[in-house]
Specification:
The protein is mainly alpha-helical. It contains 6 helices and 2 strands, in the order H-H-H-H-E-E-H-H. It is globular and about 65 Å long. It starts with a helix and ends in a 24-residue tail after the last helix.
């Protein structure tokens, strides 16, 4: 589990992407290879690798290959949002927007649904979304892993509370 301090130091989207890349077929530990796959500058990748190693989320195996130290990472308290959490979600929203504009539909899913709800149902919605994401992750990680994907689901109010 990630503490708030740990999360703050690795909140940028590419930290999680680097960790997940270690599971991709034909993964190469080269910062140049990782930078090409993530469309990032090599110095950013080098710095991120160092940070992930320092935090213990990434290690070098005896053969020199980078390995993720744990299959899955999660924040400790999902009911708290910090500036780092908000920054990461904003980055993911922008990456999603770029994918919507640039990637072929066969390689992405962007869907939305608008509906009226009782805000008191938010704890149940949060729990069901978390459960769905875990189940989807398990299902999609079966078989060969070739690309790193991000699944971002939002449920938020479009209306403001009515005031008298």
């Amino acid at each position: 589990d990630l503490t708030p301090d740990m999360f703050r130091s690795m909140a940028d989207w590419y930290h999680a992407a680097i960790l997940e890349l270690t599971f991709v077929e034909n993964f190469r530990s080269s910062p140049h290879w990782i930078a090409r796959r993530l469309k990032l500058p090599v110095p950013v990748v080098r710095s991120a690798i160092e940070r992930l190693v320092e935090l213990g989320f990434l290690f070098r195996a005896p053969d020199g290959e980078l390995k993720k130290s744990s299959e899955h990472l999660a924040t400790v308290d999902k009911t708290v949002t910090t500036a780092a959490h908000k920054r990461r979600q904003a980055e993911i929203l922008e990456k999603s927007r770029q994918s919507l504009l640039n990637d072929p539909i066969e390689t992405r899913v962007h869907q939305a649904m608008t509906f009226a709800i009782d805000p008191a149902c938010m704890p149940m919605a949060r729990a069901r979304i978390q459960s769905f994401l875990r189940e989807l992750c398990v299902d999609l990680e079966q078989g060969p892993r070739q690309q790193v994907y991000e699944c971002q689901i939002s449920l938020f109010p479009l209306t403001q509370k009515e005031t008298l």
